[in-house]
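hey all, quick one before standup. I had two proteins in the batch that finished overnight and I want to keep them in one place so we stop losing track of which output belongs to which input. First protein below, input sequence then structure tokens straight from the run.
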Amino acid sequence: METPYPKPINPNQTRIGWIGIGVMGQAMAARLISAGYSLTVYARTPQKAFSLQQKGAIIVNSPSDVANKSDIVFTMVGHPSDVKSVVLGDNGVLSGLTKGGVLIDTTSSDPVLAKEIASKAQSKGCFAIDSPVSGGDIGARDGKLAILAGGDSDVVKWLAPVYEVLGRVTYVGESGCGQSCKIANQITVGANLLGLSEGLVFAERAGLDMNRFVESIRGGAAGSMVMELFGKRMIERDFRAGGFATYMVKDLGMGVNGGEGKDAVVLPGAALSKQLFSSMVANGDGNMGTQGLITVIERINGKSV
């Protein structure tokens, strides 16, 4: 399959649409505006789009309107049900995307849904790439996201200029593979967050200075990007969300519950992580950042948080 346009992407000519302006989406969209791209934005709560509007974004009334005014449409919403509604609904992206248009879904979503969207996009002469991201709010702000792209490889190559504004893209395979890669990423991140949480709780109970503890182990086998991103936040009780705990429950659930028959995988660590993040949600902390997992370990150990 050829790339959708004979002309390369150019900030002065390529029109970009954006749907979903939460913590991550807001920062990603702002970076594209700063890079010179014109953005058309849809937000269910229009007030949330005000800061982007001040930067020059045009606000419209539906996902279909966004698609009709765009060559490339990004989505960054919450759950697979939101993706389905925004993309496949009566006023969804595919109802307004013109032939040759490209949808890029950066939501952490369902691989099966990603394949369905790609198939329906192809049937109307369009393209759909599932490319969820990892790196949290800091990565989104600084343009250092890890971007996991599934779909047509030629289209992913053509999209390189916009991806470069947001971070580093890795092509991981056919449609759905981006979402599968993100689920595997979240399984790994969840395990790292749990290990770091338990290490910090143990270190504090042992009377160690937690900052010194982190500094002493960060260069060894225990060091990780999770520690770099969240270690200081955990110690300083900064639980502001880059990625919500409730979304981690969703992502881990897709891993734990995904696959049937020969495709089924037993994931005891992911199941435990999901249970602990679910405890955060039950405690009323679902909108905390994922680094708030330490509060669950603290509660288990009798600490009032």
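OK second protein, same deal, sequence then tokens:
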Amino acid sequence: MADGINPQSNFVDEHLDDDKPPGGKEFKGATLQIDAPSTQNGEEPGVGYAGPGSNFNRNRPGSVIGRQSVRSTASRTSMRPGVIKTERMSDQYFSYKESNFDKAIDKCKEVMKDDLDGKILGKYLLTEIDHWNNEREKIILLTEGSILVFKYNFILNKLEEWRRLLLHMVDHIAIGDFKYPDKSLMPDREHGGIQIRWNKNEEPGWAQKWNPFCTTLPYMTFSHHPVLYNPKENETVTYNVDEFYEHLVQAVSECYKKKRPGEKVTILEGPILIESYASISSLIYNQSGLGFFMDRNGICF
């Protein structure tokens, strides 16, 4: 398996009772904290905003869990400038063909557990960026109790790998532009996304960071799916990481009230570091779209 994840492994299930408050050093950046419900100044219920530089629009119409619309407002996470994907280019993605996404969701639902997951709150097709800067197409199911992340083969209609992260384990959610270290030779990404952390402020070890097949890193990083750059789809919820972020914040807030009353999850606004210095392999991998199931001029992989 390319990602090195066992389909039968629920990698955080053993931490169901681990609800100790985070400790250690704080991340840098403007912070927002989920606290008591508030409806003042147009804020979303259950979310209080604080900290300098918090200039995102909080009042996007319809951005609530359970809404019926399949459309979003304009993206607030920065997108790659000048990128346009035509309908023909979008059709190269097998996830975009006919009802393939709906079929995949039906398969993914088979691994859900009522006692851990609860009801589905959102279904997304996003890009995951791993710790070696490789981009891969992933299905995300956001539920009342967890985030389920799937690697799904849209060509063979086969579920290959999956992970479960329990919402009450999340201690940081970051939103902002991606950046490489100051001494990195990598070209700027020129776009942003989100990062979900459950590391209690403890940084991964050297062996974890430098192992390309490591599956124990305590964070996940996501950005928009490339199909969002199709003008026809650039406001569709399914491919939009902004929608996932907003619904995730609300879902974690509700879960904390039940599992970790009195505690707060930290929301960070600011640059999200991708520790890649001179990875030629990831540049080739990403530019070729090898992490996506596509029709490549009659060759499908």
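Flagging for whoever picks this up: The mean pLDDT is 79. DSSP finds five helices and twelve strands in the chain.
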